[in-house]
Design brief:
Elements (H helix, E strand, L loop, with lengths): L1 H5 L11 H16 L3 H13 L8 H13 L3 H13 L1
């Protein structure tokens, strides 16, 4: 159930190869660094779940979800709450 909740608001990235995954993740990281709340939320969810070629990291997940939540993204606000609740 927890993993399903964290998919809330995460957009699907179509991937066909390992190189494609890396390129897509790099694009999301660059958008997240520029302040794009959707990219921050997505990246945070990927780190939380360890999905889409991203190694699981709760600290990185919290960092990116907090950035998106600070911009008023309600899905990120919910997901960061789940992170804090789960510890």
């Amino acid at each position: 159930m927890k993993k399903i909740i964290l998919f809330l608001g995460v957009f699907y990235v179509g991937l066909v190869s390992a190189q494609g995954i890396e390129a897509d993740i790099n694009a999301i990281i660059e958008k997240a660094k520029t302040g794009n709340a959707n990219a921050q939320k997505t990246l945070g969810s990927y780190y939380y779940l360890g999905s889409n070629g991203v190694e699981q990291s709760y600290s990185k997940a919290a960092y990116w979800l907090e950035r998106a939540a600070e911009q008023g993204d309600s899905d990120a606000q919910y997901n960061i709450g789940v992170c804090y609740y789960e510890g």
